[in-house]
Request: fold
Amino acid sequence: MSIFSKRSENTSAASSSVVGAVTAVSAPEGAAAGKTDEQWRQELTPEEYRVLRQAGTERPYTGEYWDSHTAGVYQCRACGAELFTSNEKFDSHCGWPSFWAPLAEGTVRYIHDRTLGMDRVEVRCATCDSHLGHVFEGEGYGTPTDQRFCINSVSLRLVSKPEQADGSPSTGTVAE
Reply:
């Protein structure tokens, strides 16, 4: 089933499918964390601003996290909201960090994106409305959700996990 086969305001299906989650609603209340465009320009590097605030895309295989296997939580680089974990990260070999699901329902929002002559689903931070990347479905990666959240490294900040749950030091890698 295509991720574009149904559009509605319902975002509760995010963990199993973005079908029904695609929406073209305006930015959430408090979007952009109450910051002006000028404030974002002062806080972010030019590349961060281009990707996060102008929906740009970094070049493949150049980002900091595309091939990272470090255990931890990926936060929005603009506002610090926790978005993804290394447990859901997998090697898609596409040149950008790939995740099969966000950290939790409601951490990201979806927008139907028809730019550049393509039909796809944009992923944005639900807290500050920053552009993160896109989500694709049905590509055959064999992940639990059959989805690939293709996220720009520059949109993320990895907070590594220093210890595992049992208190032993982290190996720094995640099985993928």
